[in-house]
Design a protein that fits this description.
The complex is a heterodimer of chains A (280) and B (177). Chain A is α+β, with helices and mostly antiparallel strands and 280 residues long. Chain A is 49% helix and 24% strand. The mean pLDDT of chain A is 83. Chain B has a single domain, classed as Up-down Bundle (de novo design (two linked rop proteins)), CATH 1.20.1440. Chains A and B meet through helix 6 of A and helix 5 of B.
Chain lengths: 280, 177
């Protein structure tokens, strides 16, 4: 993993450090207006006996913090993109992503896209944002997604990490007659593996004991999905630290190195079965 | 009355799940047969190809041919597993011999056969693991209480697991160039 840390760079640290730096710079300029505004809000509250002014002040402060944090996330990813010689786009097209998780929730969006070649494969790292629940339970969920594009059609597989909570209970309904495979050893304690019907043998060729061990050792909280010619790695929440970046790209590196030849070898079988499934 | 209906429904559910598991295990076993058959078909071509270059290695050709015949004739999972492992072992020796013949190593036909054989070995390994996961699920269901009562009543028997080869034997056949 050391070499990967070097690739990612020691200067790419965390969103938090960027946020603190940004706060320091902004605070020095904004401290006087903020104090004056606060005094004004307190005076207006006392004079008018309407507490809303303080309430508005808190809302404005909260909004400013969110804007600063969002900027820090953007800067962190832009910095990473620049270090890796990758491209950065502030927003992306939802029609360009096809994994089952992207059907989860409503008003889905992808943003802050970092794209470039990694170990010979096209990759995109982006933030996926979606609204779930209804009424007072309605809330937004964020996932950091690393998309790796391969030259072969892959079997539809979802690997749900038990350490993280995902909306896969919902999205699994869209897998064609999925089957839960319980593999050997302790793997089932870490992951639930769902495979589309008729692709079980291909799944066994992909998830060899060596690959299972890689996922156990290196996935952390990351779940994975294979769909069409892409592998998606799902990290719950927004990646804010270099260590998280190293984890997700470290797993991507292992997948590319260990599985590219397997994907190439099974692609004819997967394509044949895909054609057969369409015919029937 | 309601209790009787619930019990009948439970019996039907357990029976059906046992049937599904048993059929899955049988399907998985037939997957192994398909892949081993493919391997048996590849072996004579491989032997003929190597013979064309390594004419003085008749002993190893004989061993491979005998191992193939033994594997094809073996019955029962245990015997079959042993015979298959023996065939894998002799094929490794054949590939080791091939290393001494540079013209053979450069032959397109040999390389294609080697690729196909490696592919088949991996598929056999995957099919065996898949069979074992299915049999394990079935055997657990047959042993677990209260499902074992239904399994025993309707004569469901535990199936034999495929004994996978040792770590060294599991390595696919390959030639170093």
């Amino acid at each position: 993993m050391d070499d990967l840390e070097k690739i990612i760079g020691s200067d790419v640290t965390s969103v938090w450090s960027g946020f603190v730096d940004s706060l320091k710079k902004k605070t020095s300029k904004a401290i006087l207006p903020a104090i004056l505004f606060f005094v004004l809000a307190v005076m207006l509250t006392i004079l008018t006996r309407i507490p809303h002014f303080i309430f508005f002040y808190v809302i404005i402060l909260f909004t400013l913090i969110i804007i600063l944090w969002n900027t820090a996330v953007k800067d962190f990813l832009k910095h990473f993109a620049s270090h890796m010689d990758y491209k950065y786009n502030p927003s992306g097209d939802m029609s360009s992503v096809e994994g089952h998780i992207f059907q989860y929730g409503s008003n889905p969006e992808i943003e802050k896209i970092v794209s470039g070649e990694f170990f010979g494969k096209d990759t995109r790292l982006f933030i996926f944002e979606t609204t779930v629940g209804s009424g007072k339970h309605k809330h937004e969920e964020f996932y950091s997604v690393l998309e790796i594009t391969f030259d072969a059609l892959l079997p539809e597989i979802i690997l749900n990490n038990k350490k993280s909570v995902f909306g896969f209970g919902f999205t699994l309904a869209s897998l064609d007659n999925e089957r839960k495979l319980v593999l050997e050893g302790d793997f089932y304690k870490y992951f639930n593996l769902y495979v589309a019907k008729e692709y079980e043998l291909e799944a066994m060729q992909i998830f060899t004991p060596e690959v299972m061990q890689i996922f156990i050792d290196k996935a952390g909280k990351i779940s994975a999905e294979m769909y069409k010619n892409k592998v998606y790695l799902y990290f719950p929440g927004i990646i804010t630290k270099k260590e998280q970046m190293v984890t997700i790209y470290g797993l991507a590196k292992e997948i590319i190195l260990q599985l590219s030849h397997v994907f190439f070898r099974i692609k004819d079988d997967v394509e044949d079965m895909s054609k057969y499934a369409k015919l029937t | 009355m309601a209790v009787i209906v619930v019990v009948i429904l439970w019996v039907i559910a357990v029976f059906n799940s046992l049937v599904v598991l048993k059929n899955r295990a049988k399907e998985a076993l037939s997957d192994i047969d398909v892949q081993t058959k493919r391997r048996y078909d590849l072996v004579p071509n491989l032997v003929e190809t190597v013979k064309g270059y390594a004419t003085h290695e008749s002993q190893i050709f004989e061993k491979v041919t005998l191992a193939r015949a033994a594997a094809m004739g073996a019955s029962g999972l245990k015997d079959k597993a042993e015979a298959e492992n023996m065939l894998s072992s002799t094929l490794k020796s054949l590939f080791a011999v091939a290393e001494n013949y540079p013209n053979l190593r450069a032959s397109d036909n040999f390389l294609e056969l080697q690729r196909e054989l490696t592919d088949t070995e991996d598929k056999i390994q995957a099919a065996r693991r898949f069979y074992n996961t299915n049999v394990r699920d079935l055997n657990i269901k047959i042993e677990s209480f209260p499902d074992n009562m239904i399994a025993n009543t309707f004569g469901f028997k535990q199936m034999e697991l495929f004994q996978t080869a040792s770590e060294a034997e599991r390595q696919p056949v390959s030639v170093k160039f």
